[in-house]
Design goal:
Order of helices and strands: EHEHEEHHHHHH
Radius of gyration: 17 Å
Shape: globular
CATH topology of the largest domain: Glutathione S-transferase Yfyf (Class Pi), Chain A, domain 2
Number of strands: 4
Number of domains: 2
Helix content: 55-70%
Number of helices: 8
Strand content: 5-15%
CATH class of the largest domain: Mainly Alpha
Bound molecules: glutathione
Length: 202
């Protein structure tokens, strides 16, 4: 399987993390986003959205990081990571949707404006995102105060997906001290070999 991604992309990293955790063989094809490689006709034939990640699994092409995670978990029968029992699965879906709609956009704004925007840096966007996080992160901290992982006693797709956005905050030195349960959870995830293996090189 080919995974088209970028080392600094949280969306790519969550797919890579899952591949490492499930020991799915893959080759990582770097799409140089800084040089606009996502806009080439070759890449847009794979993903007309011009975004990473994309997988090519023996001719089956799929984009959207969390759709890719679901597909791979189902394909490899990773039932603890992505339960088949309806209620257990629904809780994983809940946190995946929350990740895409609540946490991801704010973490992305902070990461982009802190590290990649250059002279387009928008300090107001960082401040606005931080304000939103004051509403968003307590929800996650409250959940993790009651259980080791987002969906219960076992690690799931949701933990990997959400952790890549928390990694952005961590990288931007966002202070997680007010959220001790998130800190504990994130430190445990960071200690997994998959996290070290997929960490972007500074
Ligand atoms: N919802 C998509 C988002 C993908 C996305 O925004 N990828 C970024 C990298 S983190 C990208 O490729 N950006 C390139 C661009 O916008 O030009 C997913 O989860 O896969």
């Amino acid at each position: 399987m080919k995974l088209y991604g970028h080392p600094w992309s949280s969306n790519s990293r969550r797919v890579q993390l899952l591949c490492e955790e499930l020991k799915i063989p893959y080759s990582h094809e770097t799409v140089d986003l800084m040089k606009g490689a996502q806009y080439t006709p070759e890449f847009q034939a794979l993903n007309p959205n011009a975004k990473v990640p994309v997988i090519d699994d023996d001719g089956f092409v799929l984009w959207e990081s969390q759709a890719i995670m679901r597909y791979l978990a189902d394909k490899h029968k990773a039932n603890t990571w992505y339960p088949t029992e309806p209620k257990a699965r629904a809780v994983v879906e809940q946190w995946l949707d929350w990740n895409q709609t609540r946490l991801g956009p704010e973490a992305g704004k902070i990461m982009y404006n802190t590290h990649f925007a250059g002279d387009k840096r928008n300090d107001q966007a960082i401040e606005d995102a931080k304000k939103w996080l004051e509403k968003i992160l307590p929800v996650m901290d409250g959940a993790l105060a009651k259980r080791p992982y987002l969906c219960g006693a076992a690690i799931t797709l949701a933990d990997l997906a959400v952790a890549t956005n928390v990694a952005y905050l961590d990288h931007c030195r966002y202070d997680l001290a007010p959220y001790p349960a998130i800190r504990r959870w994130f430190d445990a995830l960071k200690a997994r070999p998959s996290f070290a293996k997929t960490a972007p090189k500074m």
